[in-house]
Amino acid sequence: MKWTIQLGIAVALVAFKGYASIDLSALSASEAGMKISQERKLKDKGWGSSEAEVEMIIVSATGEKNERRMKMRALEVIGDGDKLLTLFETPRDVKGTRFLSYSHISKPDQQWLYLPSIKRVKRIASANKSGPFMGSHFAYEDLSSFEIEKFDFKFLKKEPLEGVEHFVVEQTPKDKYSGYQRQVVWLNTKTFQASKKEYFDKAGNLVKRLTLSDYKLYKDKFWRPHSLRMEQLQTKETTLLKTHAMSFGHSFSEQDFSQASFKRMR
Asked: Euclidean distance between the first and final Cα of the chain, in Å?
């Protein structure tokens, strides 16, 4: 049985050898998953800083919509995870709310939420990062940058998705506080960008599905999805993140993402 499984993996790998820019033919499923993920990370290295105008639309099972506008600033950190600052601008009940996230490679992420109604900064504990972000269907941990060291990988298969070939890779979080048992991601074999991602809870149930689309190319190298649709499969509710504008090359520094600056912002 073991020999049959290994042979099946080998045949699948040979089937797409040469199609992508990496050779996976001699690798095990875990090695191939790691190789694909390393290429994914490498192709998105060097973007520096970005700012985006984003609309969040939370849709209930009955179709009722809750719409919010926010500005998202990101800073690439060499040798560690990226930093993200989210500023809510509308509607009135969330205006002034701010979210700051430090992703890390070798230690737990750090996240803070400023609530203007009580004028306090709330630290998001590692044990609570599986909770919903601002009432949406994105968890706090979904907002961390993708870091290879946080997962174990396994190549599952190659298959077309909407007519485009994709690698299907399983990634298992190493963090004991993650709300997920595993995640399965579909990566475009040419751009290595994610088109779909499925999330499985600790009991192994498929609970959420993220669809990423409307990709645009920046600086002739960096692809960014302008539409992210997260579905909560049990409740039939969704959250849509729509990017209306994005720019790169800002003069942000780490000081702009410091906790001190975060607390002083108006």
From this structure: 63
Residue 230 CB coordination number (10 Å): 22
- Is the peptide bond preceding residue 91 cis, with omega within 30 degrees of 0? yes
Q: Which residues of 91-129 are buried (b: 16+ CB within 10 A; e: fewer)?
A: eeebebbbbbbbbbeeeebbbbbbeeeeeeeeebebeeb
Phi, psi of 221 (to 5 degrees): -150, -35
Residues in the chain: 266
Q: pLDDT band at residue 265, thresholds of 50, 70 and 90?
A: low
As a whole number of angstroms, the distance between CA 109 and CA 88 comes to: 21
pLDDT digits (tens, 9 = 90+) for 66-116: 999 999 999 999 999 999 999 999 999 999 999 999 999 989 999 999 999
* Cα atoms in the 13 Å half-sphere on the side-chain side of 238: 14
CA atoms within 13 A on the CB side of 59: 16
Number of C-beta neighbours around residue 57 at 10 A:
15
The CA-based angle 261-46-55, given to 5 degrees, is 55
Pairing of strands 65-75, 151-161: unpaired
Q: How far is CA 112 from the centre of its chain?
A: 18
36, exposed or middle or buried, with CB in 10 Å at 0-12, 13-18, 19+?
Answer: buried
Report the largest interatomic distance among the alpha carbons of the chain, rounded to a whole angstrom: 63
| φ/ψ (deg, to 5) at 242 | -115, 120
In order of start, what are the domains of the chain with their CATH numbers? 49-264 (2.50.20.10)
> Is the CB of residue 68 less than 8 Å from the CB of residue 221?
no
pLDDT band (50, 70, 90) for residue 167:
very high
pTM summary value: 0.89
Distance of CA 71 to the CA centre of its chain: 17
